[in-house]
Amino acid sequence: MKKGSPYGTHRVIEPKGVLPQPAFKIDNDMEIYDNEILIDVKTLNVDSASFTQIKEQAGGDLEEIKKIMKGIVDERGKHQNPVTGSGGMLIGVVEKIGPALEGKTDLKVGDKIATLVSLSLTPLRIDSFGDIRKDIDQVDIKGKAILFESGIYSIIPEDMPENLALSVLDVAGAPAQTAKLVKPGDTVVVLGGTGKSGMLCLYEAKKRAGVTGKVICVGSREKTIERAKSANLADEYVVADATNAVEVMEKIAAVTDGEMADIVINTVNIPNTEMSSILITKDDGIVYFFSMATSFTKAALGAEGVGKDVNMIVGNGYTKGHAAISLNLMRESEELKKIFTELYA
Predict the structure, then answer these.
(1) Which CATH superfamily is domain 173-344 in?
(2) Which residue of 42, 202, 230, 314 is surrounded by the most CB atoms within 10 Å?
């Protein structure tokens, strides 16, 4: 059996010398190396920015969505959207474990897992499509995938439906990072607060900011704002277009008496929301860009252009304990679990 790199560099076809994520094409032959795990894939959870773009390109047509996704995988050996550069994650069953991983993993053949590394670096083969749940970015497939030695994962918990767990684990980095950033007394704004990652961030921010803090939910529609209100996820609720920086700035100024936010968390799944995030942040405040639709060029140069001295953090999808932290939110909050179950399970 062939020996592999822990980071999967042995799978890179083009260009040589890079890691699998930035590579254009990787080898998706499903004969495993000695340190790889073969997964029988059941469901892909495409990241929100990527699936939104694919749906728009396909005009919402399901067959066209399949064609676009299959084309990406056939060309690249992985599901990495060429427009957004992002992927998603998957649920599947462990089919085979390389001998070099004996004693290094708690997995066994037959375990049902969610991968916590991006599809944009995961060798993937799609054989056929099943259901496409386009409102929640989930696509059932028959296919195979490879998890590298360095790849992280979560065994699917038995106390919640797997589609619910998949939806939460897909954005696990966001609430876990929120837990690290928010302090008692902070004013926190979550842009895209009515979406999947946004609601989790609101819940975690409210818990961390406490009674002396203020958590503000910004959403684009009254209907979704009402849903967040029903779970008491924030202290203030604002309906605004996140791409309209002036509108967002004026509305946040109104609910903060002009003080603006200590921390802004951007989970919006469409482009051109960078300046809204920056303008509503206090000098020396923090902007956490979790959204994969973010242009970091626009963010950096935009902040410079308006003279804002803010700390901007790239949304890392991983932080220690993020899977456990995020799944536990479903156990802590019956209201949040009810919403997620209705939407995603």
Answers:
(1) NAD(P)-binding Rossmann-like Domain (3.40.50.720)
(2) 202
